[in-house]
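Re-run with default settings, no changes from the original entry. Doing this only to confirm the output is reproducible before filing.
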Amino acid sequence: MDKWMDNPWFIKILALVLAVLLYSSITLPGKKATDEYVPGGSTTETIKGIQVKVYYDTKNLVVSGVPDTVDVTLKGPITHVQTAKAMKNFEVYVNLADAKIGRQKAKIEIRNLSDKIKATIKPDSATVTVEEKITKEFNVEAEFNQDLIGEGFSAGKPVVEPKKVKVTGAKSKIDRITYVKAVVDERDKLKETTTKEATVQVLDKGLNKLTVEVEPATVKVTIPIKENSKTVPINTVRKGTPPEGVTIESIDLETTEAVITGDEDVLKNTDSVRVEVDVSKITANTTLDLPVIISNGITKVSPQMVKVNVKVNSQGEKTVSGIPVKIKGLAAEYKADINDPANDLINLVVNGPNTAVNGLGPGDFNVYVDLSNLEAGSHEVNIHVEGPANINWKPDKATAKVTITNNA
């Protein structure tokens, strides 16, 4: 052993062994004494629907044709791929900062991704159109569904505020604009003037919506609503037959006109409304409350009820006696004597309204026989009676016996 210790090579070898043992016993920073190196695996993941950002001169240009999203496939170490998928801390973009106006192919790129990951973008390019951005002012036309108008109402011309909007977009789209509309979306029936916020829609001649910027994007639309009404007379219609002995003298309405409401076409063809009076049970003067009857299509009437004054005359009967029978039409060379009725008088049984019948006397009637064209001899002729127009009568004799003689 002493000999080995005296050998310089033995000492050198021993020192080397001790140095290796000492190095292996030291724990390196950031590594546990129990950690062991294991080679890592790789993986491939596809992330769908990654938004594509576009960089260009947004103040003066409009770009179309760039897809909104793409699918990105990542390949690399598991931990790197999983982190990128979870965080999505990378960007997919198209750089058109130096693009010229016109149609061209643009590459879809990715950045802010670990250099240990390989990315594949689908699609990896797009055919884009770069156009001049222009702004133009348009009038806004209000639009609403006529079925929204309540029954019996009509709408005037809508008022839009503001009347004009500025539309900004690609020149090709601005040139296609045919309609700029503010469409009122309402579910309840409109029965009064209404103001609503409406979104402005920009359409081409085929009513296709155009993707443009509108300032302001919404406008206020006021729809004037008015009730359709008209004043018409109220007519009376008699129903039934008065009881025996009763005459309807008059039927008067306390209100003679009504205001009706309905669609304009219905109002144009409606000239009146009516009240139906059943006279079959009326025996004396009376006042009735009756409904105003309207035709189909009229939605409202005012007043709905009216007072009706009915005046009646009860029938009376009496005998008017001692009415003289006069002779008419006798030729000058003849004279005539009435043999029957005796004393040249007849009686009349008269009937009619009590107010008229009660005051009748012989002087209210003209009774005569007409002897025109008759020659001398005995004759039986008709007795004629004239009297008040609203009275009926019946004579106790319908004919008279007359003797005509020559005055010579």
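The first helix runs from residue 2 to 6. The chain has four domains: 42-130, 140-226, 229-314, 316-406.
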